[in-house]
Amino acid sequence: MADLxxxxxxEALQVKSELRDGAAIVRPIxxxxxxxxxxLKMEIRKVATGSVKLLIIDLGGVSYMDSxxxxxxxxxxxxxxxxxxxLVLCSLQPKVKSIFEIARLDTVFTIVDTVETAxxx
Length: 121
Description:
By secondary structure, the chain is α/β, with parallel strands linked by helices. The chain has one domain: 2-Layer Sandwich (Transcription Regulator spoIIAA), CATH 3.30.750.24. 34% of the residues lie in helices and 34% in strands. The chain has four helices and seven strands. The protein has helices at residues 37-47, 67-82, 94-102, 115-119, and strands spanning 2-5, 12-20, 23-32, 54-58, 61-65, 86-90, 110-112. Strands 1, 2, 3, 4, 5, 6 and 7 form a seven-stranded mixed beta sheet that branches. α1 runs parallel beside α2. 35% of the residues are buried.
C-alpha cells in the first residue's frame, strides 16, 4: 500500500489492491491528483499482469480527481488494451463521475456501480 499527501496536505492517497475471481481490483482512497497519480499508476502496473483478464478500479474512496488522475486512468486503459484485459471503473462518487461526463469519457470507459457488477463484465 502506498501513501502520499493529497492536495490539502492532510488527506493522503492510499492504494490497496486484491485479486478476486481472476480479476485485479485496485482501490485508491483519497485524492487522485498530481501528487497521488504516480502512486496509483505504479499500483495499476504492478497488478496488471498476464494472468489478469479483468482490471477493476474501484473509485468509491476518491472524492477528488484532477486531470492527472484522469490521464492515469487513460494510461490504464491503454495498458489494459495492450495486455488484452478489460478495464472497468466502478463506484464513482458524483463529483468524480461528473468529470467523466463533462469530458465525455463516460462513453470511452466502462463504468458500473459496484465491484460485484464489474466482476460480471
